[in-house]
Every structure is written in C-alpha cells, then in structure tokens.
C-alpha cells in the first residue's frame, strides 16, 4: 500500500526566455493605435513573441528545465508533468513532447486546458495526486503561444497577447503549503472569450458529409470580461482564503493572471490590498494566458521580492469562462 503524504511544497520555478519583443510602437505600424493608447488602457508596453523555430513544447520544456535546476532535481526524478495550455503543438496533446524534451523518462504527462485559469487549475490538480501519495515530484507548466491565434489586424485584441512559458516544481512535504483553493466555471458566458473551431462541410459519399476546418482567431468582449473579472476574482480569492483560515491581512503578495492592469488594480482595491503587494509584470509580457502567473512568480522569486515563507494569493480567470484561486506559501 502506498503511503499517504501530508502535503505539498513549491520548491522551484522557472520560465522560458523569448528574445523577440513586439513593442507598442511596432503595433502602431500594423494597426491604428499608439503606445499611449495601449499603455493607458491595459498597462502593456511590450510582449514577447515566439519565432518560427519556437514550438510550444520547446518553450514549456525550457521553463520546466529552469524550474528543475532551481529545485536541484533531475528530470528523472519527476513523476508527473501537467502542461496547462490552450495552444498546443498537437491537438492530441503536447505534454508528452515536453516529457521527451526534458528526458523525464519516469514521468506520466498530460495536457490540461482551462485557458487563463489553466495554471491554477493544474496546480490544484497536481496537489490532489500528491496528497493521495500517488506522486512525490510534479512539474506544473503553464505555456501558451497566443500569437498563433491572434488577429493582427484587430486592434481590440492584438494589443493584449504575448507568448511565454513558466513552471513550478512541487514536492511531497510533511506540511501542506497549498493552504486553500477554489475553482469555478460558467459555460453560459463562454461567448465572451473564444478561440472557436470553424468548419466547412466536406462531401464524402452521397448523403454523407464531414466537417473540415480550422480555428478562428481569438475573439473577446472586453467589457464583459472586465466586469466578470472585477466581480468574480475578489470573491473567489476570499473563498480560498476562508478555506485556508486566512484573511487578506495575512497575504504577502497578490499574484493575478496578467490580463489587464486595470483589472489588477480593481481587484486589489476591492480586497483592500495595497499596490506595493501586487505582483505585476504586464508591461513587459502582456497577457500570456496560462503562462502569466508562473512567469510573474519566477521573476519575483529571482528578483528577491518573493521570499521563502511568503503567503501568496493567486487567481487565474478567463475563457470558459473559468476562474480559480489558490493560496500558498512559497518555498
């Protein structure tokens, strides 16, 4: 019989390095916009873009490798890899490719799709396996290449998105550092943010047809997504804090999905969390979907801002619509 473990610790983090930057000035040459217009409305100044040689799985593997390096663990010690992504290289899944890139020969690997909530959902999913004693070491990766599915002629959406990958390593622990969580979905609001499949009818034999097509670019109702986030994110963070038996006064850092600086400011204001305790790297990365939280975490840890023992309240929110929160201690 397998021994049941007590809890989960977050022991390492990492992110991929994408050298190609698309600035607001660059976008102003592509659509009718300006650096001032974008920065004022979103807080974004630039975003990183994957080039032709960059695959989703290679970026995810790079982030995972740097997280393992920080953790002083080898790929062979990983039991499970969960890849949170909505933009895989292969619709059958890209996590196994990541496993191969890393050389994590013992690890089982699968994709998890929950858009911008993906990293939080994957973190919570990983913790359940570990709490049951099934796996001891788990690599959770959030990665997206949204430039693949961005309409670069639509100034409402093309100014928002960037590419990236971030990762954390979880280890079985005698004390549970994942203090509380909550996850929600509302499919009735799905139309507010979509990357939909569009098909055309293809004749097979007389009277029988099939669907042939591809995915349309990202479409978003920005006003509705803003209203949803500003209302639901504070609520779900408070629910996660309640499960953790904590209050906002116990939080060292608020780490939200990097969707829009106005959303971050509004959520922090509703939770009465001062701006200096809010992690934001949006100006440099834009919205990288499932990658945004682990990238921001990695930067804050490596900059010495987040220290071992710090309590972090994190929330992802977006397409589905889905939203979730996790309260955890770093290190």
The portion of residues assigned to helices is 25-40%
Structural class call reads alpha/beta
CATH homology-level superfamily of the largest domain: Thiolase/Chalcone synthase
Text of the CATH class of the largest domain: Alpha Beta
- Total beta strand runs: 16
Count of discrete structural domains: 2
* CATH topology value of the largest domain: Peroxisomal Thiolase, Chain A, domain 1
The tally of helices reads: 10
N-to-C terminal Cα separation, in Å?
29 Å
Main beta-sheet annotation: 5 strands, mixed
Give the overall silhouette.
globular
Chain-averaged pLDDT:
96
Identify the quaternary structure here: single chain
Radius of gyration: 20 Å
What is the succession of H and E elements?
EEHHEHEHEHEHEEEEEEHEHEHHEE
Which ranges are low-confidence, i.e. pLDDT below 50, for 5 or more consecutive residues? none
Plain-language structure description:
By secondary structure, this protein is α/β, with parallel strands linked by helices. It has two domains: 170 residues, Thiolase/Chalcone synthase (Peroxisomal Thiolase, Chain A, domain 1); 119 residues, Thiolase/Chalcone synthase (Peroxisomal Thiolase, Chain A, domain 1), CATH 3.40.47.10. It has ten helices and 16 strands. The strands form five sheets. It has a five-stranded mixed β-sheet, with helices on both faces. Strands 8-16-15-13-14 form a five-stranded mixed β-sheet, sandwiched between helices. α8 links the parallel β13 and β14. α7 runs parallel beside α8. The longest helix is centred in the C-terminal third of the chain and has 22 residues. The radius of gyration is 20 Å and the shape is globular. The two termini are 29 Å apart.
């Amino acid at each position: 019989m397998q021994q049941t473990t007590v809890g989960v610790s977050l022991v390492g983090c990492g992110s991929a390095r994408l050298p190609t930057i698309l600035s607001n000035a660059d976008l102003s040459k592509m659509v009718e916009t300006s650096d001032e217009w974008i920065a004022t409305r979103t807080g974004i100044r630039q975003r990183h873009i994957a080039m032709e040689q960059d695959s989703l799985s290679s970026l995810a593997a790079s982030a995972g490798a740097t997280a393992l390096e920080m953790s002083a663990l080898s790929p062979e010690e990983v039991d499970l890899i969960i890849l949170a992504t909505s933009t895989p290289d292969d619709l059958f899944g890209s996590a196994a490719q990541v496993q191969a890139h890393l050389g994590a020969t013992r690890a089982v690997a699968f994709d998890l799709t929950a858009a911008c909530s993906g990293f939080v959902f994957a973190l919570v999913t990983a913790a359940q396996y570990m709490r049951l004693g099934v796996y001891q070491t788990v690599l959770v990766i959030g990665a997206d290449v949204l430039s693949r599915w961005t309409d670069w002629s639509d100034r409402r959406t093309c100014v928002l998105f960037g590419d990236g990958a971030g990762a954390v390593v979880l280890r079985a622990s005698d004390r549970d550092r994942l203090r509380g969580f909550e996850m929600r979905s509302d499919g009735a609001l799905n139309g507010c943010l979509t990357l939909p499949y569009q098909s055309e009818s293809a004749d097979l034999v007389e009277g029988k047809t099939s669907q042939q097509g591809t995915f349309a670019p990202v479409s978003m109702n920005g006003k509705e997504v803003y209203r949803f986030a500003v209302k639901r994110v504070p609520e779900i963070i408070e629910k996660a804090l309640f499960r953790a038996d904590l209050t906002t006064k116990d939080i060292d850092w608020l780490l939200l999905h990097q969707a829009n600086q106005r959303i971050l400011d509004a959520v922090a204001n509703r939770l009465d969390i001062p701006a200096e305790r809010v992690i934001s790297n949006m100006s440099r990365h834009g919205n990288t979907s499932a990658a945004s939280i682990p990238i921001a975490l990695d930067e804050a840890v490596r900059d010495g801002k987040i220290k071992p023992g710090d309590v972090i309240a994190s929330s992802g929110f977006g397409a589905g619509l889905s939203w979730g929160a996790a309260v955890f201690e770093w290190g």
